[in-house]
């Protein structure tokens, strides 16, 4: 059976959960932890540890610091995003400064994205159900 992630990264993910950035803590404790759709933090997917993962919405939220906007960081993130999206997951990237300056807007953006993803998922499922009955 193929593993969905690199089990060697599990201890690294645990360490990252204990040492979240200021922005990750803010988003987690002030929004995602009590959000009605379950999110996990520092989840291992393939050979990566993603900041936040929502299974039911098939969504990943990545908070990006300034290093993500340098040439090397942009290329690395592009490859990482493409690899993760091959698993039919949506990656949302949010700059740290947006979490700091526009927290309410970030939360609204995430809420809309999650609801849209869940709506598309249920529409797809409901469209498929009648054909499965035949």
Structural class: alpha+beta
DSSP strand (E) fraction? 15-25%
Runs in which pLDDT lies below 50 for 5 or more consecutive residues are 124-134
CATH superfamily: VSR Endonuclease
What is the chain-wise order of helices and strands?
HHEEEHEHH
CATH class call? Alpha Beta
**Radius of gyration over alpha carbons?**
16 Å
CATH topology: Endonuclease, Chain A
The assigned CATH architecture is: 3-Layer(aba) Sandwich
Q: Biggest sheet: strands side by side, in what order?
A: 1-2-3-4
Q: How many alpha or pi helices?
A: 5
Q: What distance separates the N and C termini?
A: 31 Å
Approximate helicity band? 40-55%
Number of spatially distinct domains? 1
Outline:
The protein has 134 residues and is an alpha+beta fold.
Describe the protein's architecture and organization.
The protein is of the alpha+beta class and 134 residues long. The chain has one domain: Endonuclease, Chain A (3-Layer(aba) Sandwich), CATH 3.40.960. 52% of the residues lie in helices and 19% in strands. The chain has 5 helices and 4 strands. Strands 1-2-3-4 form a 4-stranded mixed sheet, with helices on both faces. The longest helix has 31 residues. The C terminus is likely disordered.
What labels would you give this structure?
four-stranded mixed β-sheet, Endonuclease, Chain A, 134 residues, 52% helix, 5 helices, alpha+beta, single chain
Write the layout of secondary structure elements.
Layout lengths: L9 H9 L3 H9 L9 E6 L2 E7 L4 E6 L6 H15 L4 E6 H6 L1 H31 L1
Parallel strand pairs: 3-4
Antiparallel strand pairs: 1-2, 2-3
